[in-house]
Amino acid sequence: MEGVQGRSDKLQGAGAVNPRSRLRVWFIRACSSIVLWTCLFQLVTVSELWRSHFFLGITSRIHHTIQSPLQIHNELVQPPPTFLPPRNYTSNGFLRVSCNGGLNQMRAAICDMVAISRLLNLTLVVPELDKKSFWADPSNFEEIFDVRHFIDSLRDEVRIVKRVPKRFSEKNGQTTLKMPPVSWSNEKYYLEQILPLFDKHKVVHFNKTDARLANNGLPFDLQKLRCRVNFQALKFTPELENLGQKLIRILSKDGPFVALHLRYEMDMLAFSGCTLGCTNEEAEELKRMRYAFPSWREKEIVSEERRSQGLCPLTPEEAALVLQALGFGRETPIYIAAGEIYGGERRLAQLRAAFPRIIRKETLLANDELQQFRNHSSQMAALDFIVSVASNTFVPTYYGNMAKLVEGHRRFSGFKKSILLDRKKLVELLDMHQNGTFSWNEFANAVRKVHERKMGQPTRRRVEADKPKEEDYFYANPYECLCEGSKCDDLLGALNSSQIQ
């Protein structure tokens, strides 16, 4: 027993720890932990500093590698746009539209169709573009415009889909009503005559869309929506935008430039019947073309009469004299915003002699850059549109759809100078100068005086009661979108003579 008791006492003695020793161990452990945590903190701090400098160098080099070409081409990376939430509404049906005409005629029509869809609470199907007109452009909507941006940027106003759902297709027994709306119609027409059609036909197809909405007398919010579509939602594809911006950069390197919309093209001359300066063979060719298109004028046209009425585009020779009279110098770069000029270089000779720095997109860009856009007249027109809007001065020789929409965009961009030629008056002045009645100085002074108030200054649209075709065009001067409420009066000024009646 004594042996057992002794072993037990030894074990208890071995297990017992002196309180002073326990305190010493705790102190050593605490100090060690503090030292270790301090070292670890210092190590992390140093490593973070090193890592930040290291990765900053790498990322800055990557950023420079990626961004430099974009900065060189003025294509800075933009954050993705933020869009408003979709508007929640019960759709009354699907509106299909087939646009007719050239690029800018179709562009205005698309804006109108969005506004009509919003007014009637419809679902708009992405518009179909004209492929059968003179230009025979096979381009679809998404080959000219950024379709995703178009749909998303308007989703708080109108629901837009790429196609009619299968359950509403004609293959499933659904009838589609095809019709052209009445031209220059107001909201009452669409609410009272068009909206009821969707009760019977859930899908209505407008097979013509040009000028189907009135210029004036529409609610303010509807007019604002037309502008929103035109100036924000209808963006060209990135490929077109990038190439258009490249043209602008090249043209701007040497200072201000003029965009001359020289509408002396085969289709315009055939349609208008204007043949000044053409050979007899060319005049006959244009006449045959006019008769080949049933939608164009088939009656006999006397070219001289149309010219005296101001209904002909200026010839290249006339354009040269007018530009000189307006004060543009010989060294002014002149960008020809147009397709192929009828008569080619022979007809451009006098203009080129007066302004040697005649420039076209075909001479500024390499063949491979333009290749994908060739044989697509609307896409080529889009490039001219981009350059014309950005030019220092825009001069159209015919007041057609492109001239009108470019004018509107330039007003929206801060009333950039657009010289809107008074062709009827110019014909008189040109003839007086060329027959010796007016000296050059008299001619130049008269030309400048006629156009003092035709430079794209702020003004109200002219309204002609019951004569919408004679009114100022909405998209040329969408003044509701350029100012707010009473501020319009301050902007438009007291000197304006074109007042709303």
Q: What is the topology, as strand order, of the major beta sheet?
A: 3-2-1-5-4
Mean pLDDT: 85
**Contiguous helical run count:** 21
How far is it from the N-terminal to the C-terminal residue, by CA?
Answer: 129 Å
Query: What does the main sheet amount to?
Result: 5 strands, parallel
Q: How does this model look, in words?
A:
This protein has 501 residues and is an alpha/beta fold. It has two domains: 94-233; 238-492, no CATH class. It has 21 helices and nine strands. The longest helix has 54 residues, at 19-72. Strands 3-2-1-5-4 form a five-stranded parallel sheet, covered by helices on one side. A four-stranded parallel sheet has the order 8-7-6-9. It is globular, with a radius of gyration of 35 Å.
